[in-house]
What does this fold into?
Amino acid sequence: MTLQQGDDLLAAAEGLAWRDSDVAERTYGRLDYQEHARRWVISGLEAHVAIRVKRIFPRISLTQVGLFGFADNDEARAELEWFLTRYPLVVSAVDRERLSAGRLRFERLRSDLEQVLQPDWRPAGAPARLRQGVVLRSNQARAVEVSQRVGRLIVADDLGLGKTLAALASVMDDRFLPVAIFAQAHLATQWQKDFIQHFTTLSSHVIQGTSFYTLPVVDAYIFKYTNAFGWTDVAATGRFRSVIFDEIQELRHGVGTMKGEAAKVFADNAAMRIGLSATPVFGYGGEMFNIVDIIEPGVLGARDEFIREWCMSDDGKMIVKDPVALGAHLRDLNLLVREVGKGPPPNRIIHDVPYDEEVAAADDAFARALALKVLQGSFSERGQAARELDMYARRVTGVAKARHVAAFVRILLEAKTPVILGGWHRDVYDIWLKELGAYNPMLYTGSETPKQKDAVKRAFMSGETDCIIMSLRSGAGLDGLQHRCSTVVHGELDWSREVHKQLAGRLRPHARPDPITEIYIVADGGSDPVIAALQGLKASQAHGIVDPKRGVEAVHTDESRIKQLARMYLERGGGEFAAVARADLDGAVDF
It folds into this structure.
C-alpha cells in the first residue's frame, strides 16, 4: 500500500466514523500492558490507524504489522493516553489506571522541574556534608535538585563550572550512599584529594586493581574505568546505591566494550546514576544513545528504534539527522542539563604550515598500496587497510609538520609564555622534545603513570617547565593548569573537534576573566585538510545535541574519510594510481 492509498483509506474511514452517530464510542484495536516484559502492546489495529501509529511514533518500523510495542515509562504512558483520546482502544480498567497514573506523574514532574530551571529558583537548603564555607552555585544546586527527583542525569555544564561538586552534592543523602565513582586512571587520586576531601566530609577509598578484596566501609568508592569490570559481582549485589560516571564520553561506545558492560551493571543496580562531561559526544550523535542507554535503559527506545526515529540511515555511524531536536528532547525528558559559561570567547588562530614532502615521501609507496586496498580490496582487506591508512596518514602528517610546529612553539616559549602542546604520536613527541630541548618540555601522555603525571603538573605549576606536551586524549579532567597558562597549541589534529575542546578546557575558558588563546597548526597536505573538513560535521552533531538553542551551521556531507585519504595518496602517485582515484570519484569503483 502506498502512502497516498493509505491517506485515502484514512480519510474514508474517518468519514464513516463521523457519520456513525449511533455508536457511543468506537474502538480501533486493543492496548495491553505486559508486566513480565514491562511493555505496552497495541494489537488488532484497523489498517488506517496502523498507518497513523507509524507516523505518530517514528520508532515503529514502517514495515511493522500486527503488534506494536512501547517500552514502559511515564512519558510513554502519557503519549499512549493522549493517543487514546484520538483513537480509542479497548483497555482494561487496571491498565487504564496505570496510564493515568503515569501521565499524572509525568506532568507533575515536568511542572516541578520547570520551576527548578527558572532563573529565580532558590534551593530550600544546602547538602549537609559539604565542608564549611563551600557554597553551591545556582547551576550546581539545580543539578542536585533535578538528579534527586528523577534519579538520573547527565550534567553537561561547560568546563570549569563545577560538575564534580554538583555530582557529589547530589549523592549526599543516606538514600544514595555509598557511591561508586568511575574516573579515568590518572584522575582517581585527584577525585579523592582535590574533590571529595577538599569539598566534603565524605570518607573515600580508591579501588586498587581488579581482584576482589575486602573493602573498607566508606561513603565513596573510586573506580578507574580500567578496573571496574573486576567488581561487577559486588555491584550486582546493590552495595553501591549511586554511581557517578566522570567524563562519561568514555562510555560512548556502549556495552560493546568492557568498561561499558561494567558501567551497565553498576547503573542497573543503583538508585541514582549521574554522568559528567562538557563533551559527551566526540563523533556522531548516535554516541549519545549509547551513553543514555546505560544511564536510563530504554528511554530512547531500543537501538533500532532510535535509528529509525533519529538517524539518517542504519550505516553503523548513527549520524543524527536533527541534533538540535534530539538535544531538546533530552532536556524535555530532564535527562540532560547544561550551563553555559560566561567567560570571554577564546582567541582562536589557524596557522598554516608547509607539509614536508621529503619527510612524507619515504613511505608513500606503502601508503599507495594501502589506498588501493581501501578502494579495490575485498571487504576484510578494505577494513584492515582503512585502519592502517588512517594511522599511517595521521602519523606521517604529524611528522611532516613537527619541526614547523616546534618552531612556532619556540617563539611562544622565548616570550616566556607557558604552553600546552597537544599531539598524538610518539614519533612526533620525539621531534618536539629534541627541537624544544632547551626549554625542558615534559610529557603528559598515555605512557606516563598517574604519579609521573602528577609530577609533570607540579613542575609546570612551579615554573620548572613552561611546556607540557600533552596527548590529545590524556588530559580530560585535569584541573589547575588555568592558574598558570592561557595558551594551547594543537600540534596534531584529531578526527573529533570535541577532543580539542577537551584539551582547551583544561584552561577553563568559561570560568576565567581573560580569554585563552587556541592555536591550530594545520599542514597544507597529508591528512590535515581531510580531518579539518570532517570536524565540521562532527561538531554540528555534538553542538546540536548539547546546545540545541545555539545556532549551528549544519554540514550535510560525510563521505568516508578514509576514501578521501586513499584518493589523495593515489592522485599524488600519478599515472595508473590517479586513474583509480578518478574512477572511484566517477562511481566506477564499488565500495
